[in-house]
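hi!! sorry for the late reply, been swamped w classes. u asked for the two structures so here they r. pasted raw, havent cleaned anything up. first the sequence of the first protein and right below it the tokens
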Amino acid sequence: MGKPVRVLIVDDSALIRQLLTTLLSADPGIEVVGTAADPYVARERIKALNPDVVTLDVEMPHMDGISFLRKIMALRPMPVIMISTLTKAGADVTLEALEIGAVDFIAKPSADAAHALPALAGELQAKVKAAARTRIAARAAMMPPKVKNVARLVRPNGRIVAIGASTGGVEALKTVLMNLPADCPPIVITQHMPPRFTAAFAQRLNRECPMSVKEAADGDVLAQGHVYIAPGSHHLQVVKSGTGYGCALNDGPPVTGHRPSVDVLFRSVARAIGRSGIGVILTGMGKDGADGLLELRKAGGQTIGQDEASSLIYGMPHVAFERGAVMRQCSLNQIADAILDACEGKPESRAPRPVAQAV
């Protein structure tokens, strides 16, 4: 085993600081090196302790978490996990934090929710360890300003695009959509995110992106120039609907550990659309989406994966690539063009990588 991940906890609540310390310290691969009740104390402890990861409360006295996060990312970029309330206001602030540079977020625990603490501990420990492996400084230097690219006309040719993402997906998805034209093919997205957050995420993208973006509803008919995001509480599937295709939602059990699951989305596209489907797998930890993307490729669809250098977490796209599910691997800034190439059936949209058997 390597050295434990060193964590600094920043929260104005003594109870939450103690609870997070207890949950994280239960993992021998994590060491809580300190806590701070406000950003001013946190600033000094970051300098003195040099932690690998910081957990940061969204709401704090003297300086709010967003303002402090901006200072961290400007002066000393490092992995930060936001501790957020599961409210509409909490979702909006947390999404802003992810765009600024936070790696991930987790719902603020409550001391009276003892039955949920074991699951929360596992999620928090996994996210802290994943955050420690991210390349924050390199990512900040690599990402260019986002600009709308509407110059390229698109011929959907009956194509439907399915995109799956997890950790790092908020910024990655925005980058992809901002570089697609307003008349893009219908796009369905599964991003690992809890309820309330997906609605706020869709609204945020709708304000900034050239196409129309909404949280998917059961029975929505897929239309050109529209993007549909799976609700945080339901799996999203593409199904035949009259002469076209539509969205179907279900609250079945988690698949590959997630609801919504990327595997569920990709498999539905493979079975409903087959060779007219385009699958894209972006940054995220774990393996959700790898098997579904392989099924889509075997059904004749075209598949695209984000490369390691541009992924905040090269987990999901790595597993998909190793299993032979990815036909074309490229950097985040090239994925929009790769999608348009696939719509037009260009030869460069296909790579010679052989199909592997899922393991």
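now the second protein. again sequence first, tokens right under
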Amino acid sequence: MGYNAFDDKNKILFERGHDNHTGEATNGIGEINGSAPLTIGIPRVLNMYENYPFWHTLIVECGMRVKLSPESTGALYQKGVGSVMSDNICFPAKLVHGHILALTDMSVDRIFYPMVIKEEKEFDSTANSFNCPIVSGYPDVIRSAIDTEEQYGIPFDKPVVTFSDDKALKKGCYQYLASLGVKASVFDKAFQKAIKVREETKHIIQTEQKKLFDKAVEENKPVFVVAGRPYHADPLVHQKTAQILADMGVDVFTEDVFCNTENGEFSKLNVIAQWSYPNRVLQAATEVAKLPHNVQLVQLNSFGCGPDSFFMDETSDILKQADKNHTILRIDEIASPGSVRLRMRSLIESIKLIDHDNAIKSGSFSGYPAIYKKEDRRKTILAPWFADFISPFIPAIGELAGYKIVNLPRTNSKSAGKSLIYGHNEVCYPSTLVLGDIIAALQSGSYDVNDVVVAITQTGGQCRATNYVAQIKAGLKRAGFSQIPVLIMSSGKVYQNEQSAFKIPVLKIIKIGIYAILYGDALQAMYSSSLLRESEAGASKCLFDKCIGEGIEAIRKNDHNALLGSLERAVEDYNRLAIQDREFTKVGLIGEIYAKYNQYGQAHISEWLRSQKMEVLTPPFIDFIMQYFVNSEVNVENGVKRGGALKHYLKPLTLKYMNDKIARVEKIMENYRFHYPAESVFTQAEYASEILDLSNQFGEGWNIAAEVASYSRNGINKIVCVQPFGCIANHVVAKGVENRMKKLYPAVNLLYLDIDSSIAQVNLQNRLHFLIN
């Protein structure tokens, strides 16, 4: 019988006497409300497998009781499955619903399930320590799916905190506990003890495993590090894989065994190590790669896990360079212990056949070889096509900046198929299409592969979009183009890409760049509303193309006044266009930014809706940019980022700078006969805050909720939300909060469409028929 670290880890985390409190009632809430101390229910889910010792200690030391939901069972899962909002979400997230409902039967006064944006940053060389959108945003999903206060009379508390900054953590915790009547003096002592318990717990889990791990390695026993998320320690989630291995004589350890081992390897990776829990898997892989062959890594992967679609390739490469297996166990709600047992037995037997004397390699990992150098500035930059009203202006802006940028052809079925050959098939659809466009272009012979650079954008947030660069680098290596540098276009910090030689003359292009976006938004709005009404087929498109051409010339001259003059003429021309005198039903098209604006990426939904005499309204691209001014305030408030005096003074000036330009374009557009007025980003944020917390900033963030609210308030209640299949952000900010959106806006008819490479057009159109008829 081998050692099973999962059992010990769960005991250390959760055996804490949940029904008792150690603080005196006179120090806490009991004295204030004149009754017994409050009983706080905490669900045994997701990041509670990391943070529960901290929360339990903090709440108990503030004079309250804690009740933890029971261990996961099939019956508990079934109890909550009816309120799950998305079928293709990961199993650990689906389990949350059952745990919340279990707490409603446990005589608790309140349910506590905080939104934790970041965990503690454990490795200095990682880019960030975000939780994935599901882990950080799921409290909002639960509030929408199961209104515990309305249905059961139990308040649901979801304060926003971050473990990445102790000062911010303390502030967030105190704001919450003070609202329950806890005194500052009591809180201070409780917080210090909770911090101490958190560190002690991590130390115990890591050091006890490390001692046994080192001994097992030295004795040449079969040793498996079963790595995943902390919540994969839930026996129902990992389907007792650890016990199956232990029964076979294997010593099983969790990724925690390497948590305090900084090796600097993260800087060599293609993937951006931005999520706290996947970072541990990468760390475990790099350490296992250095050890004898009796030490193997098994990766637990939940179906529907967005980050893993990027990290699995990197983990595999790390282990392959050390001649080690990368065994992945895919797990969901369908238990298959027989299959797990068979695979683990085969793995164990294969290890026995290896010559251990010659099995150890250095484990050194080499990343993407090409970096952007000074001499690359003369090369042509290949930019994937994004949207018809934005992409045409990119080469002209690049010319102003001193670079030659060429747009790649629009996506077609051939280029889309390329990515399925060279990329990971589970990454989100926009990344798949972009990689396919790049590979198809490079293989076409139309470009000198020794004289080009590939460009991609990077947001830097919790969403997988930050890691598109990793997908592109991996695909280029597989296709034989690893000599081509990859360049990141970003308005902020660039992650995991050496490109110090790339300089952008921001002051030279910022004004014309903003006006170019506003000009493109305006043209798109006029084209879309006129296309449906035109009396002469093709007239709207002809005018659109003419205006695009004029815009390009104005941008090349860096003449924003000429650009605005072209817009004034465009309004006059579109107003003169011969149209049909009739009304059309409006449909709002919202969702993930690429799918929303890219015709192929949305499976030509806009075109189909117009063929059915529906007027399609799409939110302006500038709204995506303007979120920054709300998000930055929210992030400072919740401690995710620090303000700084310079930012404090510069941000209002920047906001005024942007608003002045928006107002100038809006004044011109007011003369367009079908003009749809713009709304301030702060007004939109106010709408969204009624639906979900504004800390949800991954993907489109709270903007989707804001767009639903804004359209409905303006009488547009047929709304299509397009998203890549398996988009983890939309599991929270779109599908996840659908109930709450419909509760606040009952007239809204929402249709969510998941798009991927295998989607059937007839299926999409059938579903759209139900919306519009």
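hope this helps!! also noticed smth abt the second:
Residues 203-358 form a domain with the Rossmann fold fold (CATH 3.40.50.11900).
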